[in-house]
């Protein structure tokens, strides 16, 4: 992307609230070179008022908290620079374009845990046998929920992608039967099984539309400009989430530009934040329809509405279950559930990296575990030695060596006997 250094133009969009309230203004962020990815994410965080009070003012260790607080305070008054933010995030090359989703995750790993908590959700995968025994249970924490744009039945790039259907697809039950049966320790045999997925919503849900993906025909990374239908609300069980921000990406793999479309909570109006420029959207999304079509939407930011009683109970149940020590199954030990978030922490920030946001890593562990349990001879715990088959014995190197030595001895004996003069 070409350097988009803009003159400091503070296009203040003010709209007088009805009933004579003071004018409300939004301000932009200067681009340092190619930092539009950062600016878009910062504008979304600024509008995520839930986190403002959670930024720890005293904790000197959390430099990002302090810098974000300072930035948000300034942003209420005027257009700002982001030099202190890039410094605290250790972004050295401000001329290099990066991925907005990775930038968001990087910021969330460098602020107080109280802030990260707001964005942290969990997917719970459970596989149960036909008798109702729990075979595998796994919690997969996430900060962004990735949706593959290839994942719908209509693969055509011409057809628009329904975010709602893509989201629902995560929760589709999967059945394992016939050749796909799974071994259940309790039943001590292969049984039919069902995999289910449940979500524990974060307060702020960030849906990542995987526009940067691998084309397996050409084995090359591609950017998809597929049109998506973004729903105003996402619903699951008793929870409803309302969209309030979108991070857009225009352009291709090699270069492009990020902007943010955000609903102001002051005047309930959608604004576009394009670095230092801020404008009110002429065509306000969702005025005539419950969906908004976009070929640039990349991150969708939803706010979960609170439904106090149900949520309190549900949340407690889930936490209690989580605390219960899970039954350790010998074969699965080397595949202990990985904490996705911990994992992501050490990842280098690669521009437009595709793999870190792959939903498949959330599913893969479960699939692998199920595969491990297919047609497994019963080898549970202490009984394992009793059930070792002869083929397993043959696999031990010392046994093989002994057999080879024995064979050699017999051959030598035969040779000696044959060559002996009568
Ligand atoms: Zn069972």
Automatic annotation (TrEMBL):
Pfam families, sorted: UCH (PF00443)
Record-level GO BP terms: protein deubiquitination
Protein name, entry field: Ubiquitin carboxyl-terminal hydrolase 47
Positions with biased composition (Basic residues): 371-382
Gene Ontology CC annotation, any one: nucleus
Origin: domain of life: Eukaryota
Comp. bias (Basic and acidic residues): 306-338
Positions of region (Disordered): 305-338, 368-390
Native species: Xyrichtys novacula (Pearly razorfish)
Ranges of residues in domain USP: 27-305
Single GO molecular function: cysteine-type deubiquitinase activity
Cell membrane as UniProt keyword: no
């Amino acid at each position: 992307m070409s350097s988009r250094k803009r003159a400091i133009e503070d296009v203040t969009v003010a709209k007088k609230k009805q009933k004579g309230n003071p004018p409300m203004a939004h301000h932009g962020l200067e681009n340092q070179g190619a930092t539009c990815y950062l600016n878009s994410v910062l504008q979304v965080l600024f509008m995520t008022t839930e986190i403002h009070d959670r930024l720890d003012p005293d904790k000197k260790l959390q430099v990002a908290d302090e810098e974000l607080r300072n930035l948000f305070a300034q942003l209420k008054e005027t257009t700002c620079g982001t030099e202190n933010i890039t410094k605290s995030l250790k972004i050295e090359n401000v001329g290099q374009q990066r991925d907005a989703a990775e930038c968001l995750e990087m910021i969330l790993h460098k602020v107080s845990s109280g802030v990260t908590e707001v964005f942290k959700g969990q997917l719970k995968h459970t596989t149960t046998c036909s008798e109702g025994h729990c075979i595998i249970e796994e919690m997969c924490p996430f900060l962004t929920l990735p949706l593959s744009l290839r994942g719908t039945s209509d693969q055509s790039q011409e057809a628009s992608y329904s975010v709602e259907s893509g989201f629902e697809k995560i929760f589709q039950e999967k059945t394992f039967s016939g050749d796909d049966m799974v071994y259940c320790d309790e039943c001590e045999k292969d049984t039919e099984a069902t995999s289910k997925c449940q979500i524990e919503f974060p307060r702020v849900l960030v849906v990542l539309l995987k526009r940067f993906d691998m084309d397996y025909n050409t084995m090359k990374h591609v950017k998809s400009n597929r049109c998506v239908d973004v729903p105003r609300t996402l619903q699951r069980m008793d929870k409803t989430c309302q969209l309030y921000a979108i991070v857009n990406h225009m352009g291709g793999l090699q270069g492009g530009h990020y902007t943010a479309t955000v609903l102001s909570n002051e005047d309930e109006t959608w604004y576009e934040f394009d670095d230092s420029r801020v404008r009110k959207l002429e065509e306000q999304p969702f005025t005539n329809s419950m969906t908004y079509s976009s070929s640039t939407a990349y991150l969708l930011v939803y706010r979960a509405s609170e439904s106090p009683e149900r949520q309190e109970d549900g949340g407690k149940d889930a936490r209690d279950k989580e605390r219960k020590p899970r039954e350790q199954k010998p074969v699965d030990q080397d595949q202990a559930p990985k904490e996705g978030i911990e994992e992501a922490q050490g990842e280098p920030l690669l521009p437009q990296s595709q793999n870190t946001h792959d939903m498949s890593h959330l599913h893969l562990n479960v699939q692998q575990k199920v595969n491990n349990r297919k047609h497994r001879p019963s080898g549970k715990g202490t009984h394992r030695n009793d059930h070792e088959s002869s083929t397993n014995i043959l696999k031990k190197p010392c046994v093989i060596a002994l057999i080879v030595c024995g064979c050699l001895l017999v051959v030598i004996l035969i040779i000696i006997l044959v060559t002996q003069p009568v």
